[in-house]
Design brief:
two-stranded antiparallel ribbon; alpha/beta; Alpha/beta knot; eight-stranded parallel beta sheet; 230 residues; disordered N terminus; 6 helices
């Protein structure tokens, strides 16, 4: 891939099988006013198995709205991979697998997940690969700063974490969103309370009983429609 007269550009090397949130995967490629640079993905700093460079959200200066999904991996990994595929097709910017108190799966294969994301990206003709974070404690993620709307979907009784509002009301158009979806056993009352204390808005995804991967896809679709139809 050749870039012409770009100035100083930070790009992401091959994201296949690599944690794309890692700063170690980026490189400065200065080109000057009239220079050229080729992004070489065949050296030791790239993934040795795949020679294609896929742009990721970290490699692009995106002016569009970002949707980040923080989802507890399902006990059956195929169901979580189904979510990754369909969410990428709909439109998704980042995925953070989260470990919760009631998590059914506490081991996550990022290489396999990245391949699923890349396949869905190509099939749906998306311009970039969604970011994939490592498995992260939900408590750690909740306490991280995020400049956008923060939502947590849960099924706790109403006296835990305040009143829930429909996701369609909680999602303002054209604003970055971080949406938390818990495991089959739901978030604990303590997790919901911590999220609310840190600025998360409790939301409802409707009256239907949804599996984790279905709830996550509903949330992605709601965010996509909020940004596309308003």
């Amino acid at each position: 891939m050749w870039l012409n007269a770009t100035g100083s550009l930070t790009v992401q090397r091959n994201t296949m099988g690599v944690n794309t949130f890692s700063a170690s995967n980026t490189t400065q490629e200065p080109t000057g006013d009239n220079g050229q640079v080729m992004l070489n993905n065949n050296d030791d700093s790239a993934n040795g198995k795949i020679r294609t460079w896929y742009p990721s959200t970290a490699a692009l200066d995106l002016s569009c709205t970002a949707t980040i999904m923080a989802v507890a991996p399902t006990k059956n990994s195929d169901r979580f991979e189904w979510f990754l595929e369909k969410a990428t097709e709909v439109g998704l910017d980042g995925v953070v697998p989260i470990e919760c108190a009631n998590s059914e799966r506490r081991v996550f294969n990022p290489a396999r997940a990245t391949k699923v994301l890349a396949s869905a990206m190509k099939q749906s003709l998306k311009a970039y690969l969604p970011e994939l974070a490592p498995l992260t404690s939900v408590r750690e993620l909740i306490e991280r700063p995020f400049d956008g709307v923060k939502l947590i979907a849960h099924c706790r009784p109403e006296d835990f974490g305040s009143r829930r509002i429909p996701i369609t009301e909680a999602l303002p158009p054209h604003k970055d969103a971080l949406i938390l979806i818990g495991p089959e056993g739901d978030f604990t009352a303590e997790e919901v309370g911590l999220a609310v204390e840190n600025g998360f808005i409790p939301i409802s995804l409707g009256e239907s009983r949804l599996r984790t991967e279905t709830a996550a896809l509903v949330a992605v679709t709601a965010a996509y429609l909020a940004n596309s139809l308003r």
